[in-house]
Amino acid sequence: MSKKLKIIVLVMSALLAILLSVSIGGADIPISDIGRVFAYRLFGAPLPSDMPSVTAGLIWNIRLPRVLLSFVVGASLAVSGSVMQSVLKNPLASSYTVGVSAGAGLGVVLIIVFGISSTVLGAFLMPLTAIVFGMATIVFAVLVASRMSHALNDQSIILVGMILSVFVNAIMMTFASRSPEYAQQIAMWQMGSLSMRGWHVVGIISAASTVLILWLCRYAKEMDILTFGDEQASAVGVDVKKMKWFLLLLSSMLTAVSVAFVGVIGFVDLIAPHIIRRFFGAAHRYVLPLSALFGGLFLVLADLLSRTLIAPSEIPIGSITALIGAPFFGYLFLKNSKRKAGAS
Amino acid sequence: MLTIEHLSCCYGEQTVLKDISFTAKQHSKLLIIGANGCGKTTLLKAIAGLIPHQGIVSVNGKNTALLSRKEQAKKIGFLSQISSIYFPYTVYETVMHGRYVHLRDGLLRNVDKTNEKIVLKCLEMTGLLALKNKSITTLSGGQLQRVFLARVFAQEPDIILLDEPTNHLDLKHQLELMAYLDDWVKQGPRLVVGVVHDMNLALSFADEILMLKDGGILAHEKGAELDLKLMNELFEIDVISHMKQSLLKWQ
User: Fold this and answer.
1) Using the beta-carbon criterion (under 8 Å), do A231 and B100 form an inter-chain contact?
2) Using a CB-CB distance cutoff of 8 angstroms, which residues of chain A are in contact with residue B90?
3) Which chain B residues have a beta carbon less than 8 Å from that of A227?
4) Cis (ω within 30 of 0) for the bond into A312?
5) Which of A54, A219, B100, B221 has the fewest other C-beta atoms within 10 Å?
6) What's the pTM value of the predicted model, to 2 decimals?
7) ipTM of the assembly?
8) Edge-to-edge strands, sheet with B62-63
9) What is the pLDDT of residues A294-340, one digit of tens each?
């Protein structure tokens, strides 16, 4: 299959997943009705008289924002993951594994538990705190790692990040047990939730994520070169230390924005870049935008499962991604190690 | 022209290079030889600006320490031994990385026709045109090293530094690689400075030889005028007898 055809298939699948996801739920909505509501909302076309009045509201105010939110969050996490994997040259690296997600989550939890509010920042307090905490985690991890070894050693950054992640999660749990009244809310942040977010949240995340993803895409070449190792990248002319800091901070920010609104969701960021590299090669000018597409598609479907499998209850989205992601990842590793053993 | 003045280098407490000074002229190939741990690779990395050091490295009269990473890479390229490859870039993409310092920095940072032409020329120079769209993870060692050679050619530096690039290559590919470099040097005001493990290869390829012992210079001679007896001192064994005995076996 040519690259173009593969891209078209991916785009169509993403659109199909979005449509299906809007259509399926507590009340199933025919896809034709979705089209009519779109025409009504966007172009003022009249709604057909036989459509129940709640359907239009359900589509436009509940289902669609949720599905779009899943897509944008999935896309952000996937791009963030592919940047981390390339910069740290490790297929296990992601904002989730290096502690950014946990750090951002802690920021949110602190605000909930201490009931902090700000008249100046208003609704932006939570996302900003999440971003600051998420980025502080990666800065801390990199600084500790660079004290361990002279250069910005990738393995140490990942190791320190993983330890930090566990540590920060423990702090969250401590807060949860100290304030049982918030325990459920905190649990929700730890496993993520895409429900009950209005259009304004979709708007904020989409704007922030689009800017950050496009910005990262500008540095596709540097990421390509960095995967060959720090020394080779320097010799080719990349300012490795500066570029690493920049890319790590930007991709952490991308994850933190998502965590701020929907909590911690893992595995999307690990899986999406892997699959995209397998089908489209390693060049980041493809890997970044297509990982975004695949990550979005993946999370839309995962969210569909999370709200339909045991309806009317919901399974936390983070559990779904982990339930699909962990075995898939194990499979990838077994397959890789078999291939390596066969080759040698 | 490459000028090194009073270059010193330490790893922590340990001094690896002590007060090295030498000059290498254009159109020539200077090879550095010495025993393991004498500081050869450290010297190369210091010249390339990849590790911190004292003293001055200048290319055509310009102190490289005052240049940005990009400007340094425009002057000095680096070819090391083959390292592990994890990501499946194509041959063409990999060689295009060499153009990094020459690409325009516009909003979209597209690659223009000039750069594409130069990459194709470098692929042709190294006999890689047919492999252009192959993934580098599927190449043999010899092919992969040619890809990295094409990448460093594409960088269009004034100097190429070699850090044992012939390691892991068989004899045919070793000779082939050196022949490509030989051609490259002749094509302009260029210079190759490097470390090659095989002493015979070094002697036949080099215009000048720099002998490095315990972090200092033992001798710096024209290849033809080299006093081979110094080899015995350099490696602390009777090199000449060893080589003569090997030759007898071939005859």
Assistant:
1) no
2) 281, 283
3) 86-87, 89
4) yes
5) A54
6) 0.88
7) 0.89
8) B14-24, B2-11, B54-59, B62-63
9) 999 999 999 999 999 887 888 889 999 999 888 887 887 777 666 55
